[in-house]
Every structure is written in C-alpha cells, then in structure tokens.
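Encode chain A's predicted structure.
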Amino acid sequence: MGLFKSIFGRSDPPRANLDNLFAVPSAAITLEAGAGFTSTGVASVCYRQAEGGAFASTQSDIQQLLDADGGPKVERTVDDFGYTWLVCRGDPAELSDLITDVHAVNSSLENAGFGPSLLCSLVVFADANGRRFALVYLYKHGTFYPFAPIGKHNRDNALELQVRGLLADDLVIEPELGQWMAVWGAPGL
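Encoded structure for chain A:
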C-alpha cells in the first residue's frame, strides 16, 4: 500500500492530536507578553450534530459533565450553517481549566465514535483596545491558526499574521493559509 501512495503522491491526512490543546495556556503567555492579548474566558467546540439517540445521549452527557461544578457555564447554539457550537465560559485567569473543558468535549465526542463530526475548537482572546481574535484548532489537521474578524465579513489579516509569527514556537500552526477558514458568527467573537 505504501508503494502506491508514493507513486500516486498521496499521503495519509494528519491526525488530530487533542493534547496539542494543552499548549494553549503557555501560548497565551506569549500572546500577552508580545501583543497584550489575554483570554476572554470563552472557548467553544464546533461540530456537525449527528442524528440518533447515541449522539443526543453523548451530547447531553458532555453538557452535564461540564455543568456539574455549579452554574450554567456551558451553552449549546446552532449557527446559520447548521453546525452546533458547545460554548464553555470560565474565569479568564483560569485558561487551563477552560482548555481542559474543551479537551473533554473533543475527547468525549471522539471516544463515542463521532470524531468525524468535529470541525474545530476556538479560544477567544482580546486586547485593551477591544480587538478580538480566536485561536482556532482544526480538528482534522491537528493545527492552529488565528481568525480575527472585523465587522460582519472582513478579517484583520495583519493581526492574524502577527499572531502566527508570535506563536510559531508555541503551537503547531497551519502552514497553508488557504486552510485558515473564516468562522463568521462564532460564539464569543
């Protein structure tokens, strides 16, 4: 099989490594020191909801698990494209806890056999001037990229490239700019 892949120029797609998410808190230190951006305390997981009781049960179990420590810190929304967002909110100073929640959502869906439904995870950052961007983890690529919307359908490309430069040593950055998809209307942005 390897011979045919090399002859036809095909390779296996990169696998998601959910443990890469745990690098975000140290990357946040770099963001704060290098550009003044801090966590807003909002992170989310985007996925295509599957039909059937097994998926509904898994989704309910995830939400109950994350809401177990008190108040409603998790909410579920559906965007204009039909994707479901499970939004986690927490103390911005406790980014590690927020990342653990996002990791738990991704892992739970993956372990229940719904990994192909996962699209991406976002962690939102802002600076003192009100500029915001999301650090996006592409599940199917196992890489990160920044998405900085301005207004309804414009992007702050300069900020995105600045963040890429700052985090090149901290995170696995998606090398193909064409894969830096816009996630318009993402919760928290």
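The mean pLDDT is 86.
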